[in-house]
Please model this.
Amino acid sequence: MHLIARQKEELRNYYRRERQARFISATWRRILESPEISAANSIASYFSYGYEPETHDLNQLIFDSGRTIYLPRMLSDKDLEWIRWDGVTPTLTKKVKIFEPAGPALTNEQLSSIDVVIVPALHVDRDGNRLGQGGGSYDRALAKMSGWKIALVHSGELTSEPIPYDIHDQKVDAAATPELIVRFHS
Model:
């Protein structure tokens, strides 16, 4: 394992333990008021699990507002495909830890029309580098999506310390905690 991969894995383990130790349920209603999300017609999100920032209510609010919402489905090669969600939680299928929608997937061309992409992260640094779970699924997906990308993190998971990154890692445009949104300049 090369140095950056080892550093990232050590950070993941540390941040997972830290997150579990201070997990609290938070509301994400505030981010719906951001200009980027207020103007969006289509939003890609995810259904959180474990100690990730809770997105179930957020997803329902997005759906109830009349916007189109897409959720990911993981393929056997750990790539993600995006499916339009019908707003009904029981239609989601639990695959390992993740709830996934059923239905036809968007094409790569359709992915580029999504206005906002809400993504999970363990930590985000001041340059918009995000540390994910380590499978690269979101980095591969974000490379195909041109919408505004925002990571959800708990308070204290935005850091001024640089996160190690590889050439394939995708930056986010912003990160949100329940209290604030931080936008990054390219």
Remarks:
- The chain has a mean pLDDT of 88.
